[in-house]
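Researcher: Let's continue the batch. This sequence belongs to Carbamoyl-phosphate synthase large subunit, and it's 950 residues. Same format as the previous ones, please.
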Amino acid sequence: MPKREKLKSILIIGSGPIVIGQACEFDYSGTQALRSLREDGIETILINSNPATIMTDPSMADHVYLKPLNTKSIIQILKEHPQIDAVLPTMGGQTALNLCIEADEKGIWDDFDVEIIGVDIDAINITEDREQFRELMLKIGIGMAPQATANSYLKGKEIAQEFGFPLVIRASYTLGGAGASFVYKEEDFDELLTRGLEVSPIHEVMIDKALIGWKEYELELLRDNNDNVVIICAIENMDPMGIHTGDSITVAPAMTLSDKTYQRMRDMAIHMMRSIGDFAGGCNVQFAVSPDENEDIIAIEINPRVSRSSALASKATGYPIAKIAAKLAIGYNLDELDNQITKSTSALFEPTLDYVIVKIPRWNFDKFEGADRRLGLQMKSVGEVMAIGRSFQEALHKATQSLEIKRNGLGADGKGYKDYDQIIEKLSYASWDRVFVIYDAIQMGIPLSRIYEITKIDMWFLKQYEELYNLEKEISTYTIQSLTKDLILEAKQKGFADRQIAHMVGCYESEVYNKRDELGINRVYKLVDTCAAEFNAETPYFYSTFEAEVETPQGEVYVSNESEVTDKKKIVVLGSGPNRIGQGIEFDYCCVHGVLAAAECGYETIMINCNPETVSTDFDTADKLYFEPVFWEHIYDIIRHEKPEGVIVQLGGQTALKLAEKLDRYGIKIIGTSFQSLDLAEDRGSFSKLLQENNIPYPEFDTAETADEALEVADRLDFPILVRPSYVLGGQGMKIVINKQELEEHVVDLLRKIPNNKLLLDHYLDGAIEAEADAICDGENVYIIGIMEHIEPCGIHSGDSNATLPPFNLGEFVMQQIKDHTYKIALELNTVGLINIQFAIKDDMVYIIEANPRASRTVPFIAKAYGEPYVNYATKVMLGEKKVTDFDFKPHLEGYAIKQPVFSFNKFPSVNKKLGPEMKSTGESILFIDDLKDDQFYDLYSRRKMYLSK
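Model: Same format as before. Here are the structure tokens for Carbamoyl-phosphate synthase large subunit:
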């Protein structure tokens, strides 16, 4: 049936600030849903408190409410918009669902005559209430692990006694595995049971018999009102049961499943979806399969909404699940909708993959000192990367190259573990770097049978690893001169980077690059087309691979390349890679706006990124999307292929910025601020000289490259001293030290983690106020888009501070210094585009902490607070299309906006929660207040020094 005409105005609930377990994949889903509804002429009203995302951009919905996600805000919105017909809660993760259910229980939807669409509340209750779900599964004949529900401590103890150990405890109504844990030993049970009961909003847990070593799979389904069901994607977890799917290395399509078992699994998933309720929309089903010939299947859970995996499945298949789910929610059927990629077939089809996808999570344990780094049922990763290759090996290598953890891929970079006990320990207790440790174990000669016995990772995956190591061994017997074309091609097809091959044969990366270039071993680009090339794809969404040359009957030798280069002028925007603490979704917001602004200026836009959770990697954001690692070799090949006018690096955070030197060295034009200026701002010595020449004060400082030098510097500077490495983001490795012993310990530790780094030692201005400014500069004119004052004192990382726009107690004299310094620094650095400057204010004197001539974390916040598209303006300035004076700036803000950090410490119960110069927050929300008498401001201000630590 076509769209329901009655639905003219729809409220969408967002997912709020980013936390571990609920990240920007829901921002991506929500953005798609908004666009999808607006295509049908439906008025969209959005509530979301996250200022960093593209979803809360004024252009995304007809009305955007940056309000706290609670029923009070919902009532306010429904009063202001009596025309709202329905609410769509399935796009904002567990946060949106929980809020929708709470509003339903309070009768709010009934009071305002608002219908819930896209989901069935009864279906949610069945799936979230593990006892009800279990009874239903047994009734419809779907197997489950032995399990029972406990809503008291006593009941939990009884169940444990009956089942025996190991056990799994799962808390009801939580996301990201909050409160879930494996219990191997009886002595751990009491504490973990208590934690699960406390975390669950209804104080209920399900206790399961643990299925140790079983394989885990996920299916993504869509269903319409006619009961048509399509399975979009089957995802296999490389890790066996016992590790949260958000922390698992996953592969699509499923690699080790027999066709017969896959068909059984499909039937079970469809049967489950139909039995939980009568709703149209997306669904995610998780199964466990026994690792023997029987391949017994057991249901784990079903989520009747778009899930974390939906974003991954959408990017993996090219089938935009959230976009279609939104259409189904308003009444369309699958056969009435177009396949978004081919444009010539319907959405009632199941994608076919002629490539392999590997997703690897990205962790940030270094930010949580004392955290339990072992992986389990509770999700701990902060982001993820996805890679596309022609084989599992190629995709695995590309994914490891995308992680940005100073590895060049699996092995062949001299950074593997060499200690037998350490390797066994890391395999026995799943470690975050196990994807590399498996390779190290094979390299050490540990037999595959032993690795399987410890990890229960399917032998097929282990054999793929072994093949890679055998190839490395073979190549290592050659020199760059004697290396054959066939061997280089094989290594490239299996995903080895030029750097790795150079490591194997003992030469420079450039020598390998030049040799393969001479031999004609070049990357080719293939379309992600959803249908294994059965129909023509209209959407330019590419991945790279290597192919052997083919000779036609006419004797023509060629390699098939599906990425056709146009003669239009082009701009490449480098994305920010995987989310992590210090570099999150705010840079994705900037990249998307950069792409849209370049398109407005008449450029063909090319996006390079490897983050599956974001809007920047949507297939229709840029004119061309290369889903590739933001890794030099891949970027250089795309640039050589496309020949753009230049590359924008200042919107993708530190990831893109780090590549500026190489781009400059290879003669590739950097759009906006030059590499020399970017480098000058990073090089503390040169930057301080610039400040000195312009009579701008800065804290006394010096640099050191060894512990001895640092101790000498300490004799000249007064303690406390702020120590930090250069070229890092999110305050990585920053610490305030108060004596020589602490200084020596921290410097030795830093140089071990980041060898050859130049360390900066600043005298720390104790008790100073911190402020920051963001500005746009065209080389001649400067416009300050916002000045923020931090509620917390100097010494807490700006990303962890409550930042107030405009400042609340800086006098005119101080404000004038901030403005003067900002103008001067922006012009002296020859900034073209955005710049962020951080200040410390002591005794009415404004000191410069640092300047970053790029988009900063606060730009989206200021844009939302003032209602101005600053990244759009800045991009047009970078491209030389406009001067700052060409824009009519009209910022509008009544009262104050406060950027509030949000932390995910609940995932790490034993971690010290004190704040310091190293950033620890995972997300942020925005709070609008009318004046400084507001209770919330008073509360923040009174607690401002509570968490300050070294």
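Researcher: Any comment?
Model: The domain at 767-943 is CATH 3.30.470.20 (D-amino Acid Aminotransferase; Chain A, domain 1).
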